[in-house]
Amino acid sequence: MAGALLEVKDLRFAWPGSAHDCLDIAALQVAAGETVFLHGPSGCGKSTLLSLLAGVLLPQSGRVALDGVDWGDLRPAARDRHRVDQVGYIFQQFNLLPYLTALENVLLPCRFSTRRREAAARSARSLRAEGQHWLGGMGLDAAVSDRPAHMLSVGQQQRVAAARALIGRPGLVVADEPTSALDEDRRDVFLDLLLSACAEAGSALVFVSHDRRIAPRFGRQVSLPAINRAAVGMQAVA
Ligand SMILES: Nc1ncnc2c1ncn2[C@@H]1O[C@H](COP(=O)(O)OP(=O)(O)OP(=O)(O)O)[C@@H](O)[C@H]1O
Predict the structure, then answer these.
(1) What is the C-alpha separation between 172 and 86, in angstroms, rounded?
(2) Domain ranges for the chain
(3) Cα(35)–Cα(44) distance, rounded to whole angstroms?
(4) At what angle do helices 114-123 and 127-137 cross, to 10 degrees?
(5) Whose CA is nearest to atom 17 of ligand 1?
(6) What is residue 59's DSSP assignment?
(7) CATH architecture, range 4-45+58-226
(8) Which has more pLDDT, 162 or 232?
(9) Quick one: the chain helix, strand, coil %, rounded to 5?
């Protein structure tokens, strides 16, 4: 894939103290703006792979490059900068700061990333307006934006986490099982909003879930056991 946004090549990763590789992936590429559904059974390494894609973990060998930059070539501070510039992360537990308001949570990446602050400032009259734009894009009205995160429902927190991932239009959004706490209707509404917001931002999306029913909503489906040479025998239960 020419000019892939995300490129994995000959990646091998073992958790410290483990005698076995958790992941051994010859190649995986994601194009700019592409939406990828990553699935596989519990424990097969989906969250570990997301951490490697986002430069939170480094492989023992091989290359993981985002926007042409190999995470392994960066010192820790530069890695943190590249991550906040280029990656929006939606965690399973959302990881909002509880005493900040919804809007303050959404604006956090702009505090730490000049690139995202400038991108946000180009798009709206003020950062506040841009934060509200992404909250609105995730179906949250202005009344929610000034409420502390700990006073929001689970569904609202999840939408705030998505708006925070999207502000400043990072190249890549990764989402780790963000729909696992939702019923089917709310899951579908959330996915509709997230997919349209990623399209508007021009962000690629790598979305992890056990729930294969939502797979057709994505541009591409990737079975982790199918591409992981360390996962002998896992494919049968994927
Ligand atoms: N911090 C850690 N230290 C050591 N081993 C870990 C750590 N985190 C995960 N593992 C191990 O790595 C393997 C892959 O775990 P991971 O959480 O990536 O799987 P997963 O596919 O995301 O699972 P699930 O669908 O249940 O969330 C598991 O065997 C797990 O025990």
Answers:
(1) 6
(2) 4-45+58-226
(3) 21
(4) 80
(5) 47
(6) -
(7) 3-Layer(aba) Sandwich (3.40)
(8) 162
(9) 45, 20, 35
The 10s digit of each residue's pLDDT in 151-202 is 999 889 999 999 999 999 999 999 998 887 778 888 899 999 999 999 999 9
**Beta strand ranges found along the chain (DSSP E):** 6-13, 23-30, 35-39, 61-66, 69-70, 87-90, 172-176, 204-208, 220-223
User: Is any atom of ligand 1 closer than 6 Å to the C-beta of 42?
Assistant: yes
Q: How many CB atoms lie within 10 A of CB 104?
A: 20
Nearest CA owner, ligand 1 atom 31:
43
Span 68-91, mean pLDDT? 96
Mean pLDDT of 98-120: 94
Length of the chain: 238
Q: Ligand 1 centre from 22 Cα, in Å?
A: 8
Encoded tokens for 103: 């809007």
